[in-house]
Each structure stands twice: as C-alpha cells, then as structure tokens.
Amino acid sequence: MTATWPRPAPEPEPGLPSGTADPARVPADTVAAEPVGEAFRTWMRACALAGWSARLGTETVAVTAARGRVTAESIRARWPVPAYRAAAMDGIAVTTTGTEALTGAGPGTVGLSPEHFDRVDTGDPVPEGRDAVVIREQVTITASGAAELSGPAVAGRHIRQVGEDIRAGAIVLPAGHRVRPADAAALAAAGHASILVRRRPTVVILPTGDEIRPVGTTLAPGEILDTNSIMLAGMAEEAGCSSETLPIAPDAPGDIAVAVATAARTADLVLIIAGSSAGRDDHTSSVVERLGRVAVHGVAMRPGHPVVLGVLGGADDTTGGNRENEPDGAGLHAWPGAPAVPVVGIPGYPASAERAFTCFVRPLLYRILDTGAARVAEHSVPARLAGPVVSAEHVDEYVKVRLARVLAPGTGHLTLVAVPLPRGAGALTTLVQTEAILRIPAGTNGYPAGTTVRPVPVDGAAFAAATTIVTGLRSPATDTFIELLRADLPGSAVHWQSCPADDAVGALADGLCHAAAVTIDSVAGRPDEQLAAALVDRLGPITLLELARIGAQAEVLVVPAAAFDSVPVEELRTALSSMAYRRALHEVPAYTGRNAGHETWHGPPEHPEETTPAVSSAPANGATQCATR
Predict the structure, then answer these.
(1) Is CATH 3.40.50.10420 the classification given to domain 202-374?
(2) Is 465 within 8 Å of 433 (Cβ atoms)?
C-alpha cells in the first residue's frame, strides 16, 4: 500500500468555484436572480388585480385559549404588575431609615425587637413603613421573639416595587404578535381575560389523483396513500390557520373544477395537491385558468419546480370580471361577483410539496395574519460543508442537511458541519431527518467541501443531534459496520463519505469529519510505524480503531486523540467492540474481526502520553510514541 500523508493541497473540484469564501458574497458578474421571490411577487400582483385583500376579520378569544393566535391590536396593561410592593424573598421586612444599626454593617449580629420587623414570604405585601427585606438565611428568631441579623439591611433590597414588571398602560404585546404561553400569562397578569385576535385563515386542501387512496386503506399495486394532505394540514395549522381536507378528487378536469369552486366559497386559500406538472393527467393549471387566473406555472427552483400560483374568482383584468360563459349550476362560482381566493397547485412529491408550502404558502399566510414572523428574516447559522455540493445555475436549490459538531485537530475548536442529504423529491424520510435547509441561489453552481455556508435550522428538528461523519474507505467490512450502526439509528445519523485516503485524512485535519477510514500495513500485528508517524505529523496525537484485518493489512478508523471521548467517537468505539459486529464479520469472506475494536494511541515523540497505558512498547529513538489501550 502506498500512502502520501501529509497530502498536497487539493485541486478545486471541477465545475465548482474555488476557495472557501462565504457564498453570501457573490461576485459582481454572478447572475443576480431570485426566482422564488419574483414568482411570489408576481402572484401577489395577480391576486391584487383580482381584488383580493390580505386582511381578514377579527374575533375575541379568552386569554386561556389565545396561544398561537395573532393579536389584532396593541394590548396595554389595565393595571400595574405587581399592583403592590411585594416581598421578593422569604424573610423579615424592616425599616432602615433612622436605624443606624441596620444601615451600618459592623462585625457580629444586630438585634431587633418584634415591633421593628414583620415576617414576610415571597409575594406578600410589604407593610407600610418597611423599606427592606432581610432574607431568612440571615435572620435568627430568638425565644423572646426578637430577630438577630447576621448581615446588613439595605433600603429597597428584596422588594418588588409597584409596576416593576409591567407599568399600568404599558404595551404588553404589539399588534401582529403570535401569542406564546408566557405571553398569555403576562396578559392575564396585566388584567386581560380576553383579547382581540385576527381570524384564523381557512386553508382547504384538495388531494387529486386516480391512484391516491385515503390513509388506512390497504393498497393495491400502483396505489399511493394521501400523506401529503397530512403534512400540509399540519404545516397550515402550525402557521396559525385552520385546515380542512376534502375527499380525493379523480383525475377528471370537471370533478376537480367542481371541488375547487366549492372549496373557494369558504376558503381563504385553496391548495390542490398533484396535477401541477405537464403530464396527461395533470389538470391543475387548466382548472385554475378556467375558474380564475394562473399567475405562475413553474418556478426555477428545486425541489418544487412545477408549482402553480393563481387566483380563483374576483375581477379579471382582461374581461373586467365578466364570465358569462362559465357554468354556475354545476357547483362553480357564480360569475361575476365571486370573491378572489388565492390558489396553489402543490406538486405531488413530498419534498416538492414541503418546499412549495414553505416558499409560497407560508409567506402568504403570514401576510394574511400580518404577523411579525413575515418581517423577521430566517435565522441562519454558520456551518462548513462536509462535502462538495453541485447545483444548476439556473435554479434556486434548497438542499436539506444534517448538522454535526466536529473537533478540528489543528485548533481544538468545535465547528458546525453541514452534511447534505439525498435530494430525491419523493423521500419522506429525508424530510423527517432534515435539521436545516441550505439555499443555493440561482447563478451559483455549488460550493466545494469546507465552504462556510449559512443553512437555516428547521423548527423542531433535532439540531446537531448525533450525526457521525466518517470519510474514506468503503469495503465489505465498512459496509457491514455501517449496516450495524444504522440498525438502531436513523439512516442519516451516520454519514460515510467514500473518498481516497489522502482526502479522508485531509478532511479529518480540516475538521470536516469525526473519523477517517483508511487501510494501513500491519507489521507483527501492529500498525506500520512509518504510516502512523505520517498521520501524527498531519493530525497530532491520534487513536487508531481497528475495523478488521484482511491479509497483512488492517482497515482502521483514525480519530484525533482529543476527540477520543466525544459522543460520536464513543458510538463508533462501542459498535466496533461489540459481539454483534464481530459475528457479522464472520460472514464477510477473507476478513477477520478478531481484533475489531482494538485501540492504539500514537503521538509525537516529544509529547508522550500523560496517562500510563495498559500495554506499551518502548519506541526507538525519535520514533512515534505508541500505546495500546
């Protein structure tokens, strides 16, 4: 085996920009396109031309039922909180004015007769004339009822003044605020039993397709469960709306039109699932055109390209709202005069459906609710790419990623690393396992490994949960190991990126992975010292975790010694030393797992290991320090 550690500087990936600059800083000659934003603005202009208004009515709800609702006006406190001077701690209330013994802190204790203090608990009113509370831990009540203080009393200490939390008349919540549990408690404390909120938008969801079946159905070949409706209804409710899912409509334009027109009579927004592409059974665009107007059909984004954005009913800028030829006895709108209702044709693939909702439906719902969420930019976090990401320049691409914290051997610092997930639009498991979304804007063809990017964490996701990143060798032994790891973990929790040994060690040195899988020669049952020394020169102190032996070579995981006890490495060590892994290796031809999990520490000769190893070998002069655990 030939090894060339440390490796030379890598050449830039073909088709990727060189360097590791922040992708937010695009060169001046880069295409400055924003397909998603422009499509949304085009849709909003079409809705406005049709006479649609984002403002809905209001309603009054009890504070106890206000969680998740959006305030329709600024809400002011009816009274101060607290409404009286309150004790902030358990103890005694005293008067410091004119009492030299209380204001001067001398050695020993200070005694007070019973008439000079009042016992108080947290939240009790402070009696008039008392201006300080001495905490219970500094007070001893004697048998005579006197109080002995072991510390000074300071005027104003441990007393909550009137209005200290909320002043009477102060704004407790602004208009357009989504009420949280703590907000509801503050409103109640400020004197409100009910508040005025914006009416929840009603989102009506129409699944379509001859092959779509309700959840709970026993499927025949070629049939698909209606899972998109569940996801979209939940996303709508999370955004602050009420949702209704209609029965599945067959791939017949007339049936879809009747269902859509009926839905529009009670809906503030209609979502039509599937049928938005250009296949023989894709009728969404023609139905929307028949009942209103298509503003956008297809957006340069991935996933979610076939999305349809339109408006039902309302005034038509080309006909002045006159649609005398439209049937009004078959359940369709009675033209003219039908109110304008936005409509979205949602692509059928789950990942495309999620992206269409996130990019278009949710911003519209926030606009209807006029919530502050629409005005707050999504909070991104800096992370480095574990591997290169390639994207087409003509589209906005939204890449789902997992996040992991990785120790960089050179600096000893933990960094956040983003691992791209598979991009199949039909993969529900990818949606479940996604921790953040990385947008690659149009005009950019991707980023090389190590680039600092800014993905946006997904609400409720297991942020930086337990993703373990390994780069390097793929072999029958490593495949067996991966299968064992993933038996009890989500598939995305173990990211094993195949690459040459030089690149794997470089990624480990750069802090882009937790371990590097490589093959090294074995001399008398021990790793080749020359190769081990080369690894130490590149990485500093390391531990080699043996995967398996094949002939005179060992397949090992290289981990920085500083990360030896980290959670990801601990999981690797535990799995390697398990009997389940050794038994599984018995089925792999030519491999032996007798020493699987064997751990060997290697460090620079001038920095021997501080702790005494269980087994050690005395190195020759200048050799790499080595110890076996």
Answers:
(1) no
(2) no
